[in-house]
Each structure stands twice: as C-alpha cells, then as structure tokens.
Protein: Aminoglycoside phosphotransferase APH(3')
Organism: Alteribacter lacisalsi
Amino acid sequence: MSPITLNEIPDELKEFIGDIKSLTFPRQGWTSDVGILETTSGAFYALKRTKETLYNTWLEKEVDVLHTLCTETKLPVPQVRKFLAESSKNQSWALMDFLDGETLRTALFNETNLEKRRELIYNFGQILGEIHSTPCPGSLKHGEPWLDNMLLKAEYNFKCHNVDGTRDILDSIKANKPDKFKQTLIHGDYTIDNVLVHNGVISGVIDWSGGAYGDPRYDTALAVRPKPYAFQNEEDNTLFFKGYGSRIITNSDYDYFVNGLYEFF
C-alpha cells in the first residue's frame, strides 16, 4: 500500500501544486510519510505527512525551522511552500521544494570506489561543521539550556508516548549530565538518512524538526553511530572528524547522547 495516495492529498495543496504527473516514494522513515511529486509542468516537490499529535508537532517545528534557515542562512535546506494542519484527522502536511539526490546511506551502499566513499564520509563531517559554525538565528534561541529542555521532553515522551528508553536510563541521564559545552546551531537528527548526495556531492540536509540552539556533541554522536556500510570502523570516524574540523566528543559523551538521551526521541 502506498504511504500517500492522490485522493488523500488535501484540495488546498492540490490547487497550489497543479496537475500531478507522478507520485513516487523514497525510503520511508518511522515518523512520517514522504512522497515525491512531479507535475505536468515539470516541477518537483517533496510532500510530507504526519499522523498523531507528537509527530504533527515535530512537523510544525520543522516547518518553522526551515522558514528561518531559508531566510537567515545559506545552508542547503529545502524551502517550504505550504503547511496544512488537519486537526479533524489529527494529521499535518508540508509541501516543500524537492532537492535532487539520494540519501548518504544509499550513496555509501552503492559506491564501489574506495576513495569516493572516503570523500563522502569526509564531506558528511564537513557539512556538519558548516552547520555548527553558522550563526544561530535568534528565533531558534530560547532562555533555558538546550539539554535541560531535552530532558524535560524526554520525561514527557517517556510518560506519554512509546519510546525505547527506560526509567533507569532516564534517571541516569538526568543525574549524570555531561560537562557544559558551547551551544551552536544544531540539526538535532544528523544521520546518513538526512543528508542528500547528488553526483557525488552533498546537495542538501533534510528533516530539521530537531533544529535548535543546542549541544553540537549531540549531532556528532548521532552522525557516527554504526550503520550498515558506514561507521563500522575507526577509519570512518577519523575521516568524519577530519572533515568536521576536530573530535569534540569523548566515548562517555557518545554513550550519554546515543544510548541515553536519543532513546527518548
């Protein structure tokens, strides 16, 4: 069954899109349905639909972050064209420009040239370094420290939603916070599935619902989690941090963010 059917797309969005020639689907995530629309006039859009209150909130947050980044930075992110919340159906829609490319996960899987593969890993780190060195827009800065806010959200998600984290893990990350670190603009879910590659070059960074003024160690920790065909060895880690500019996390930082905090999101 298709994640999204043409009949499900709200009329308000169809009026903006125009006549649809095709609707195809990339690899799907857990929190949303995503389709790629091609119109009869040759335009391409990415259409994202969420269901349930938690994921609808994330999509609305992503739309706000993308509006800000498109206006105030030069980062390679998609521009949102339309956002629609259907409260009666407890679902939300975002229509945004389609960025050419395949995910870095797919690019690494298909790349047989070892030097080109190394270059992709290096550039994956380099782009994250550019994100972290980009001045954070004021609208993304809030009064409370990012980690304190994330721990409050973790507590809420543990009580109200189905998460992988346990009470023991939650108590541990609340009691054993890492040393403070200079906050920067962060992505919030920087993984090989959220970076696009076109003709061997990184063409975009997507899925910005976690975008914030926060701890850059969180991004680097999520980035180097072992995945099939990526970060299964120390060479990938070394290349990534060489591209990034420095190795800013310790083993204990990695464990705190990946095996602790991330379990609640």
